Amino acid sequence: MKLDLRQLRHVLAVDRYRNFARAADAVGITQPALSRSLQALEEAVGGRLFDRDRVRVEPTALGLRLIELARPLVVMARDAERELRQMVALDGGLLRIGAGPYAAELSVGSAVGRFSRMHPGVHVDLAVADWPELYQRLLAEEFELIVAESSNATEDDRFLVEQLPVHAGFLYGRAGHPLAGRADLTIADLSPYPVATTVMPRRVLDLIDRVDTLIRPDQPDGAGTLELRVEMPHVARLIVMESDVVGIAVGHQLDDDLAAGRLVKLQLHLPWLGTSYGIVRLAHRTPSPAASAFLAILREVEADIATRTS
Fold it and tell me: Beta partners for 205?
């Protein structure tokens, strides 16, 4: 036995109107076509669904049971059709995104804002976390995509990686920091001062090891931290303002604080200090319409940042 959703809709229409002509109008077919549809369904289920004569149409016991079973199926199908139309038209649905702390501050937050303004019917769930956690949650399919450190994923065939522009990093301290204003800094001069940062990738830890600093790495699964780990860059800024801790920033993160004199750039150029984050998705998965629209906006935001810093 094979039940057809279209035929179930016909059964419910006949039950509602108890009149074949009105039921046929309601479902948009002719009365003979409706009769043929019900006859085919009766043959499939093996019994009469309606008792009918010139003046009345009544469901049989078999028909009543089929009506009970069909009603939630038709409602679910209608809801599914509506939700899918909304998703395609970006009038509904849910987009789950993960972002690393620096990506969230630099571009993802702005991209989510633009996306929400353009598509207010789509709900967005944005989680900000260090990249090792984001990858675990992506593999668990808690996110459709993440924007995070990508150096550990480029050779992993489980992921599809789209690299985003590199944003140069720099070190900073509070106004009045002992290293502020010195033009002859070396990385060894940082040794007495804790560095506040998020979890760091292997590519940076390896470079730190090469220059033989006093930084203490902790490297589970290719990750590590410096002396003072924070989850969000803005928290590091607050710590730096009240201490001799050194912070790491990229792009325009500190424009307001630098202009106001609350923080200062330290004159130590480290060409390897910068972002290497990208868009990471599970391989062999087609992005949803909402994800595709969001990624187009994110690329625009990243291009704007690159233009301002060039």
Answer: none
